[in-house]
User: Which sequence fits this backbone?
């Protein structure tokens, strides 16, 4: 476990706030799903909160983030508008993407949330492009691309890491290693036993960290982001974690040993961090409760906004296929 | 046409180089990426020769053999405000990066509700006739036309090559610009200065009222030869060079068919599911009453492209095929 005392209390507050926001949003989606209030296909990031919080803490609005279908935690950590996010998940006209992208394609360029893709591994090559643009601009902006353990076995991963290495691109490859790719266990599908270990094949930095500890992730991301901003090239940060709710909500999870999941949930990263902050007297119980309840109210507002928003006008089917002037 | 006064004879390959040179000179946001595109070679066909020397390796970037990484990097840079021109050495290699092209370049604008756009151009060489066999000879434009969000074009001459490529580079959507290798060395008059061809505008290369002949790319020369032969028989063909396959200039096609009542389409790509099928369907839907004969497609055979010269020639559509078909339609 990382030494919490090395960080400013304001950093802890920020990390906890992000983690609580992710947890509470996720809880709300799943509650609404199981009670039949909404009907969406939902890939829960519950259990992986510490990764997005720890990485996101280092990012500026002009830094770019690319993520996947299991991306809610990354969206929230990048600061996208909660109302617009909820409305997009519910397919409403007021959504970030006017209801045309959905959860798998959340985009919010003003926050630097540039691409969310449903194609495993496809974000890595595109992230290089944002990093190349920053490099050409002479800016110190960085790009973070999030992906799963399974994605490290697709060709796009290797093409992208190689290109980022030879061009010394300011990109951080953040692997959320939740030990499963759909129904396939990490070891069953991944040779070599480590994603971070693959960095050495490309001559770049790679580090495996406890992805359930926000402070460890924060410290690893700090170095990776520093390296990228300084023009010293890319890093693979592999964050070891566990997904609490299967591949997709409704997954029977027969391929997962029940004990393994129970143990992971008993060591809930959000609860553990919260308890630690109180024990270490970093934040008081009252302060934490205040953070939690403020977020709960923000989510109430966002849910209400999304639910009361109209569906997209049917004319939207035909817009945004091409830039101005060309009919689809 | 937005041509300046002066023109000179250029080969298609020179016209493409000229368009890239001018785009790089006029806009810092234009960058080139692709395998082996840097000097001294300037690409396997020498199309980008001189450009890395003139503009530097930051802007004319040779890449490893990583088509997904090339197109992906070009997409990201495009969303970030650049106007990348990515080269896929040979069109057949779209097979290894089609996800980036079809799921990302084509759809990011739509999926983001118009918040992002992808001003990307992908150039590729393409086509048969050099005995390169089944994996280095294909015309795959139908794959691309079937994907909403992409623009697709194939020039038939130097002026269009220069003007259409320039239009693609400065267009805000992802465009695929297809260069038939067998057309690279064809020379024709080309504007020397800034030149653009409007998106989605076909060109009527010859007017006539007996039959409409539609084609695109290097086969336009064959179609014009066929039209000359038909004229000798007293058959006045109208010849349309599509130039853009998406957006498709259906108005020009329909107006011509309404005048002539007959339509023959010729393309190098395999017949089944090809662009010709789309055109035939549009005409059947919109101008059925004007047709005085069935629509005919002359195209690549429904086979892989073979190696042996004799077989490859048998795969390709010919002037003779078109002339015979046109005569049969008119008689
Ligand atoms: C190219 C591609 N192949 C297959 C799929 C189907 N699929 C969706 S998620 C997934 C598992 C990916 O696992 P991982 O990368 O570990 O991410 P996680 O879901 O665990 O976050 C698969 C196979 C896909 N979306 N894209
Ligand atoms: Mg996984």
Assistant:
């Amino acid at each position: 476990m990382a030494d919490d005392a090395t960080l400013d209390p304001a950093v802890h507050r920020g990390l906890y706030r992000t983690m609580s926001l992710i947890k509470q949003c996720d809880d709300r989606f799943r509650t609404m799903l199981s009670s039949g209030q909404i009907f969406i296909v939902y890939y829960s990031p519950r259990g992986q909160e510490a990764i997005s919080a720890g990485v996101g803490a280092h990012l500026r609005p002009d830094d770019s983030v690319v993520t996947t279908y299991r991306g809610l935690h990354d969206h929230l950590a990048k600061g996208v508008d909660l109302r617009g996010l909820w409305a997009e998940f519910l397919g409403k006209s007021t959504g970030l993407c006017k209801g045309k992208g959905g959860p798998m394609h959340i985009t919010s360029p003003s926050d630097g949330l540039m691409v969310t893709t449903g194609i495993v591994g496809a974000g890595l090559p595109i992230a290089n492009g944002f990093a190349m643009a920053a490099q050409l601009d002479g800016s110190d902006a960085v790009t973070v691309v999030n992906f799963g353990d399974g994605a490290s076995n697709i060709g796009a991963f290797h093409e992208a890491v190689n290109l980022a290495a030879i061009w010394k691109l300011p990109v951080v490859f953040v692997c959320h290693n939740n030990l499963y790719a759909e129904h396939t266990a990490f070891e069953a599908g991944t040779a070599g036993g480590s994603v971070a270990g693959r960095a050495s094949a490309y001559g770049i930095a790679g580090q495996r960290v406890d992805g359930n500890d926000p402070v460890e992730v924060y410290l690893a991301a700090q170095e990776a982001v520093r390296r990228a901003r300084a023009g010293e090239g890319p890093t693979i940060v592999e964050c070891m974690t566990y997904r609490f709710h299967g591949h997709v909500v409704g997954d029977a999870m027969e391929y997962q040993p029940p004990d393994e999941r129970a143990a992971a949930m008993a060591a809930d990263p959000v609860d553990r961090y919260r308890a630690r902050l109180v024990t270490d007297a970093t934040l008081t119980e009252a302060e934490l409760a205040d953070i939690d309840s403020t977020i709960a109210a923000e989510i109430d507002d966002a849910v209400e906004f999304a639910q009361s928003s109209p569906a997209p006008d049917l004319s939207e089917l035909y817009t945004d296929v091409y830039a101005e002037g060309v009919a689809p | 046409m937005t041509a300046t006064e002066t023109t000179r004879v250029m080969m298609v390959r020179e016209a493409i180089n000229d368009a890239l040179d001018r785009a790089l000179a006029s806009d810092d946001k234009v960058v080139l990426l692709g395998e082996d595109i840097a000097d001294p070679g300037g690409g396997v066909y020498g199309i980008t020769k001189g450009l890395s020397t003139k503009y530097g390796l930051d802007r004319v970037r040779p890449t490893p053999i990583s088509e997904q990484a090339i197109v992906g990097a070009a997409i990201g840079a495009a969303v970030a405000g650049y106007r990348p021109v990515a080269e896929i050495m040979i069109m057949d290699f779209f097979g290894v990066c089609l996800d980036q092209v079809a799921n990302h370049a084509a759809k990011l604008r739509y999926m983001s509700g118009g918040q992002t756009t992808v001003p990307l151009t992908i150039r590729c060489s393409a086509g048969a006739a050099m005995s390169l066999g089944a994996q280095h000879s294909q015309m795959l434009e139908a794959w691309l036309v079937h994907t909403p969000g992409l623009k697709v074009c194939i020039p038939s001459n130097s002026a269009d090559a220069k003007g259409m490529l320039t239009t693609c580079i400065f267009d805000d959507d992802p465009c695929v610009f297809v260069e038939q290798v067998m057309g690279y060395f064809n020379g024709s008059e080309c504007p020397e200065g800034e030149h653009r061809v409007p998106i989605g505008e076909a060109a009527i290369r010859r007017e006539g009222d007996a039959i409409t002949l539609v084609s695109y790319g290097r086969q336009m020369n064959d179609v014009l030869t066929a039209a000359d032969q038909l004229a000798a028989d007293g058959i006045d063909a109208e010849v349309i060079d599509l130039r853009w396959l998406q957006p498709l200039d259906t108005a020009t096609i329909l107006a011509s068919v309404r005048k002539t009542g007959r339509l023959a389409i010729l393309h190098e790509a395999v017949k089944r599911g090809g662009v010709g099928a789309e055109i035939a369907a549009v005409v059947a839907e919109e101008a059925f009453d004007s047709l005085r004969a069935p629509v005919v497609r002359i195209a690549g055979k429904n086979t892989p492209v073979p190696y042996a010269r004799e077989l490859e020639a048998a795969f390709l559509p010919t002037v003779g095929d078109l002339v015979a078909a046109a005569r049969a339609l008119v008689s």
